[in-house]
Amino acid sequence: MTPLDTKKLRADFPILKRLVHGKPLAYLDNAATTQKPRAVIDALVRFYETNNANVHRGVHTLSEESTNMTEAVRTKLAAFIGAPKPETVVFTRNATESINLVAYAWGRKFLKAGDEIVITEMEHHSNMVPWQLLAKEKGLTLKYAPVELDGTLDLDKVKATLGPKTKLFAFTALSNALGTVNAVQDLIKAGRAVGAAVLVDACQWAPHRPMDMKAWGADFVAFSAHKMLGPTGVGVLWGREELLEAMDPFLGGGDMISRVTLEGATWNALPYKFEAGTPNYADTVAFGPALDYLSAVGLDAIRAHEDALAAKAVALLESEPAVRVLGPKDPKKRSGVISFNLAGLHPHDVGTVFDLEGVAVRVGHHCCQPLMHKMQCGGTARASFYLYNDESDLEALGRALKRTVEFFKLGAKAGVR
Amino acid sequence: MEGDAELQDLYREVLLDYFRSASRKGAADPADVRAHGINPVCGDELEITARREGGRLAQVRYAGHGCVISQASAAMMAEALEGRTEAEAKDLVRAFKKMMLENAPASGLPEPLEPVSALEGVRKFPLRVKCATLGWNTILQGLEAGPAKGA
Questions:
Q1: Which ipTM did the prediction report?
Q2: Are residues A76 and A195 in the same domain?
Q3: What average pLDDT values come out for chain A (417 residues) when binned by 10 residues?
Q4: Number of domain units in chain A
Q5: Which residue of A has its CA nearest to B66?
Q6: What residues of A are in the B interface, CB distance below 8 Å?
Q7: B67 membership: H or E segment, kind and range
Q8: A414 lies in some domain
Q9: A30-42 as b/e: b if 16+ CB within 10 A
Q10: Residue A402's closest chain B neighbor by CA?
Q11: Is A377 an active-site residue?
């Protein structure tokens, strides 16, 4: 595999030219959101300048163009994720909304008191709180498959948590907080083996690794455009066709109906049944060039590049005695997301010093408070890599780390906390 | 560290001293005032307790973990408020918040808040202001809630 020409790639991302506190930006917060290539930014501007009109509404030329451009992205995305049909791809505002859609439109209709939902302890709040709410509302039991202290799942323990009463198994493909890569297909099989519907949170997977809905065999998969070079405000829910057909609508309004009378309404066909109101079609159109960009560079090449950077970053961080890197030790079980702590120092203080070096890292609980609790910390600092990161970012990370350690006079056993 | 003026302005030596000192860490006994504060941005939690005696806050303590700014600020708060009447304590909290949130000059702080002027540098880091005010908002909430439940 040819290594990425990061110099060339970086020139496609205008924001990478900016300075932060007088230092070149080292953007290592890609698990939160990624930067956008010129092609995506231009597509958004071009759309508003030349094509903008509401979709599925009229017979005039612009409306037809706008509709066709939006649907072309749905078709492109369906191919990108190996979905059997474009109609099984539903656009939402974000992955959180995608998961809530399943909780409301599927869970409310098909789950009843006494049923069980199983999720894991490593879930993002967005794949935890909707189920807590649903469980409370419907009298369901919510069970948690445990996370090991190295941040991995033990498949046998997951299987032991699943049972005949499990009606839904929801899990993350890749941990946003620890970088753990889960055995997605084994987990899907385990869920389906007990007859549960399976939902995969693929937010951290979709930007980095190929996915094939047909091969996965899950029932629902959620992710968002903004973590994969696309604009904000576009989430994706892929669903198995029979389930999407059987579900009730999520929100009521325009676009999702077939016929409305004063007595009631009938629902539009898939996927429009779930896309009530004016959708975020402009950003959806601009998501197209993001998918093209990822396809042109190649997810396999991107992943190899990130893995190499992540391995170097772990080595660099661990060369400092005060640093503890969380998550799996085995590089095969780890992605380009690296969570770490400095002994005796709160992640916020780490983040502030890093920012002064132009290094953007996420600090805090990463919307995973139960997981942080399990890892016996309130939070971590997290560096996450993407295709445009290079050696210069590692050097900046090293400088920021050194500055932090020196300023706070941290040693291996420093424990001011 | 010499030469790192940017960081020294935020993390002044006196702040680091308060952060490292644990002299007012723990719980007041009995805890006549008890309040729990959460910074939703980072998930940090702080528990502030105080013992009342003769119309004054005889003992003020903070527990929990947090960044240098929030811990040092809570330690300064506990020190400044100890021995004050509740009315005085509330006035001091308000004066502190005025400095942090409304850019009131640190030189205008009442005498018991003198060490707190070290937090002035935090104002240049708007995302960190919440860290500095957490302990103060928490005790205010406790004082306004009346007697602690179960105390």
A1: 0.84
A2: yes
A3: 91 97 97 98 98 90 96 98 97 98 97 98 97 98 97 98 98 97 98 98 98 97 98 98 96 86 88 94 98 98 96 97 94 94 92 96 91 87 98 98 92 46
A4: 2
A5: A346
A6: 21, 345-349, 352-353, 356, 363-365, 369, 372, 378-379, 403, 406-409, 416-417
A7: none
A8: no
A9: bbbbbbbbebbbe
A10: B1
A11: no
Q: Which of B2, B4, B7, B17 to mutate to probe the A interface, most A CBs <10 Å?
A: B7
- Long-range contacts made by residues A293-299, C-beta under 8 angstroms, separation at least 24? A293/A12, A293/A37, A293/A39, A293/A40, A293/A229, A294/A80, A294/A207, A294/A228, A294/A229, A295/A80, A297/A4, A297/A9, A297/A387, A299/A208, A299/A209, A299/A210
Q: Which residue of A has its CA nearest to B122?
A: A352
Scan for tokens 């509401």, then name that residue. A54
Alpha-carbon dihedral angle through residues A227, A231, A237, A241, given to the nearest 10 degrees: -130
Taking an 8 Å cut-off on Cβ atoms, the answer to whether B67 and A409 are in contact is no
* Domain finish residue from A294, A329, A353: A294
Closest partner CB to B7 (pick from A345, A356, A378): A356
Chain A within 8 Å of B14 (Cβ-Cβ)?
no
d(CA B129, CA A195): 50
Contact A348 B1 (CB under 8 A): no
Q: Is A231 helix (H, G, I), strand (E, B) or coil?
A: coil
Q: Which of residues 74-133 of B touch A (CB under 8 A)?
A: 125, 128, 131
Encoding tokens for residue A80?
A: 């990108």
Same domain, A263 and A138: yes
Q: What global pTM score does this model have?
A: 0.92
Residues of B in contact with A408 (CB under 8 A): 11, 16
Q: Is B20 on the interface with A (CB under 8 A)?
A: yes
Cα–Cα distance, B131 to A351 (Å, whole number) = 13
Q: Nearest by CB to A352, which of B10, B16, B71?
A: B10
CB pairs under 8 A between A and B: 56
**B17/A contact by beta carbon, under 8 A:** no
**CA–CA dist A339, B93 (Å, integer):** 36
CA-nearest residue of chain B to A405? B1
Residue A365 structure tokens: 């609980």
Token pair for A408: 């706070």
8 Å CB contact of B20 and A416: yes
Put simply, the answer to whether A346 touches B68 (Cβ < 8 Å) is yes
Query: Could you read off the pLDDT tens digit of each residue along chain B, which spans 151 residues?
Result: 445 888 998 999 999 999 988 889 999 999 999 999 998 877 788 999 999 999 999 999 999 988 999 999 999 999 999 999 999 999 999 999 999 999 888 888 999 999 999 999 999 888 899 999 999 999 999 999 865 554 4
Contact A348 B125 (CB under 8 A): no
Q: Which two tokens stand for residue A270?
A: 């898939």
Q: Which domains does chain B have, with CATH numbers?
A: 5-144 (3.90.1010.10)
Helix axes A38-50, A281-297, angle to 10 degrees: 150
Domain holding A302, by residue range, is 6-30+298-407
Is A110 found in the same domain as A10?
Answer: no
What SS3 class is residue B12?
coil
Torsion of CA B92, B94, B100, B105, to 10 degrees: -70
Q: What is the Cα–Cα distance from A169 to A159, expressed in whole angstroms?
A: 11
